[in-house]
Amino acid sequence: MDSSSPLLVFSSQSQLEPQDQRPSTQLSFLDNSQSNKTLLLPSKFIWPKGDLVDAHHKLTEPYVDLQGFLKGDKNATIAASNLVRKACMKHGFFQVVNHGVDHTLLATALDKMGSLFNLPSNLKTRASKMWGFSTAHSNRFSSKLPWKETFSFGFDHCITSNDPSVAHFFTSTLGKEFEEIGVVYQKYCEAMRELSLAITELLAISLGVERWELRKFFEDGSSIMRLNSYPICQQGGVTLGTGPHCDPTGLTILHQDQVGGLEVFANNKWHTVQPSHNALVVNIGDLFMALCNGEYKSCVHRAVVNKHKERRSLAFFLCPRKDKVVRPPENLVAGDGARKYPDFSWSELLEFTQKYYRADAATLPNFTKWLVSSRASDLHSST
C-alpha cells in the first residue's frame, strides 16, 4: 500500500453507512510520560456488554514447526500442512515456531516501539497525517473506540534494502534521528515478507493447490505494518483494546510481548492466547477466505486491555496489489462450480472498509452484499 493511503480500521461496526457522515472527535491519550491509571473513560470508549463477554478457555492448538518445511523436508511439510489445515478450517488461527526470523531482530523491533510511543503528543500529531500515529481511531469514529494507539506504514514487496522506503518514511516523518529505528523496521518488514510468502506456500499445499499459486498472488503486493500500544486501563471491564473483528487483508503475522490480551473466538466461545517468546501468531483474513472460496475461516479475534501493564504488538498484514482480482483457484470451486464470493479487487474491499463499513466479524458477507448491490445499480444506471 502506498504511503498516501488512509489507515485501515480494524474494530467493530454494526451499521453500513458512509463513514464521512459520522461525527468525528479528535481525542488523544495522555503522553506516556504521564499516567493513564486513573483516567476516567469517556463514553466513546465504552463497549456493549455482548462484546465484553469474558474468555474462560485457553486456545490449546499445537504450534506449527516450520523448520522442516523451510528446509524442504517432505514429511515435515505434510505434518505442518495438516496442522495448518485443521486450524484454518476450525477458526483460522495458528502459531508458528522455528520460522527462520532472527530472534534478535524480533526483540529489537519490539523494544524500539518504546521510542515511538513515548514521543510527545506534538510530534505524534505531526506524523499522523496519513500514515503514522493514530489514537483510538478517534478521527474517524465517535463510539466504541478501541483503547489503543497505533503507528502504521506501508511496505511495497518489490522494495529492497537498496531502496529503503520504510527507513525513509521514518526520517521524513519523524526526523533524521529516527533513521536507525527506520532501518530496524525496514529489516523487520523484509523478514515478514519472506515469512508470509513462505506461509502462503504451506497454505497452498494444505489446500491441495499448486504450491506457488498463492505466493504468486501476493508476491508483488504492498502490505501494511502496524505497531500497537495498549495503555494501562483500570476500567478494562467496560472497554476493549480492539473489538471483535476479522482482518480484511490476506494474512496477519503478529509478534507480541508477554503481557497477553489477544483472544480468538472459536466454538462460540472466546479463548485466550498464551504468548510465547519463540512463536509468531498467524491468522487468516477476509481476503484469503474469499481467495480459497471459504474453505478456510477468517479468524474472529479481539484484544482486551490490562489493568497493570501496557501491552505492545507488531502486526504485518499481507496484501496483494490493489488491482489484483480475488478469484479462487479452479480446484477450490465445488464440482457444480459454486462460488461463495464474486470476483473483486483488493482496492474494492479496501474502499468498503474505508468509506462505508467499520471492519467487524461480518465484514466479508456485508461486503459481498454491498458489491452485488453496487454493481447492479451501476448496470441499471448504464441501461
From TrEMBL:
Its cofactor is L-ascorbate. Residues 1-27 are annotated as: Disordered. It holds the Pfam family DIOX_N. Residues 17-27 have a biased composition (Polar residues). Residues 1-16 have a biased composition (Low complexity). Coiled coil: none annotated. InterPro entries: DIOX_N (IPR026992), IPNS-like_FE2OG_OXY (IPR044861), IPNS-like_sf (IPR027443), Iron_ascorbate_oxido_reductase (IPR050231), Oxoglu/Fe-dep_dioxygenase_dom (IPR005123). PROSITE patterns: FE2OG_OXY. Keywords: Iron, Metal-binding, Oxidoreductase. Pathway: Plant hormone biosynthesis; gibberellin biosynthesis; Hormone biosynthesis. One of its GO terms (biological process) is gibberellin biosynthetic process. GO terms for molecular function: gibberellin 20-oxidase activity; metal ion binding. PANTHER family: 2-OXOGLUTARATE (2OG) AND FE(II)-DEPENDENT OXYGENASE SUPERFAMILY PROTEIN-RELATED. Belongs to the iron/ascorbate-dependent oxidoreductase family. GA20OX subfamily. This is Gibberellin 20 oxidase 3-like. It comes from Momordica charantia (Bitter gourd). The lineage of its organism: Eukaryota, Viridiplantae, Streptophyta, Embryophyta, Tracheophyta.
